[in-house]
Write a structure and sequence with these properties.
This protein has helices at 44-51, 69-74, 93-97, 99-104, 115-121, 137-149, 167-184, 195-201, 235-249; strands at 2-13, 16-28, 33-37, 59-64, 78-81, 155-159, 187-191, 204-208, 215-220. It is built from nine helices and nine strands. Strand 1 (2-13) and strand 2 form a beta hairpin. Helix 5 crosses helix 6. The protein has 250 residues and is α/β, with parallel strands linked by helices. It folds into two domains: 2-77 and 153-249, P-loop containing nucleotide triphosphate hydrolases (Rossmann fold), CATH 3.40.50; 85-151, no CATH class.
């Protein structure tokens, strides 16, 4: 579904060229849940921006299916969830959710789930008429997830979507994300600083080196699905997370 071949990303700064990514080779299969972890500044979010066609790599190639990232973006192959929910304050939760459909001129009947059904899916069936100021941080992120799913894209890009939330809310949204993936089997590329979160969610985890970001390791997560709260008590879960943490520290 997503293929990186020898990708490099350089940025121009006041101090001269800055190498953000080097020699990135990565293949993500359709329906796979892949997380990217690593130290701050290693290029995790840059990888998402390249996949989404928001920036072009300095060298190398990226394919999304048979398309370039820009072609895939124009064809609406991606839903994007950011760390900040980015809700318009003058629109209700339901109106924020329907914004992508309005922009692309899509009929609600053309998508599998109506906006009201999506709100129910993320546990906000009774919150559609509330404005962002009336919602908690976790509720706003639920709206953001529903909004990213509103036009039924095959790929979901998630950039530290739970990083600013408290531990309890983060756990709940992790479980929600697992549930959504189990039901939809969308291809998900997920960026996080939380190694334990990555292990709980993912099929594979890409471990990045410090800047310039290179792929240091790709770890298979050998945990059965569906993932449950009890998964976090399993020896394999703890050992996999500790292995990745040791890799990042060294």
């Amino acid at each position: 579904m997503i293929v990186f071949e020898n990708v490099r990303m350089d940025f121009e700064t006041r101090g001269g060229p800055l190498s953000a990514l080097e020699s990135i080779d990565l293949s993500i299969k359709q329906g796979e849940f892949v997380s990217i972890v690593g130290p701050s500044g290693c290029g995790k979010s840059t990888i998402l921006r390249i996949v989404a066609g928001l920036i072009a790599p300095s060298a190398g190639t990226v394919r999304v299916g048979k398309e370039t990232p820009n072609e895939a973006r124009l064809a609406r192959r991606f839903g994007f969830v950011f760390q900040n929910s980015v809700m318009l304050p003058w629109r209700t939760a339901l109106e924020n959710l329907t914004l992508p459909l309005e922009i692309i001129g899509a009929d609600e009947k053309s998508v599998p789930l109506t906006p009201a059904q999506l709100l129910e899916t993320v546990g906000l069936a009774n919150a559609g008429s509330l404005f962002p100021r009336q919602l908690s941080g976790g509720m706003r992120q639920r709206v953001a997830i529903a909004r990213a799913l509103s036009f039924d894209p095959p790929i979901l890009l998630m950039d530290e979507p739970f990083g600013a939330l408290d531990a309890l809310t983060r756990d709940r949204l992790q479980s929600l994300t697992v549930d959504i993936w189990e039901k939809s089997r969308k291809t998900i590329l997920f960026v996080t600083h939380d190694v334990y979160e990555a292990v709980y969610l993912s099929d594979r985890i890409v471990v990045m080196t410090p800047s310039p970001g290179r792929i240091q390791d790709i770890v298979e997560v050998n945990l059965p699905r569906p993932r449950l709260d009890s998964t976090k008590e399993e020896t394999t879960y703890i050992q996999t997370a500790q292995r990745i943490l040791r890799s990042i520290k060294h």
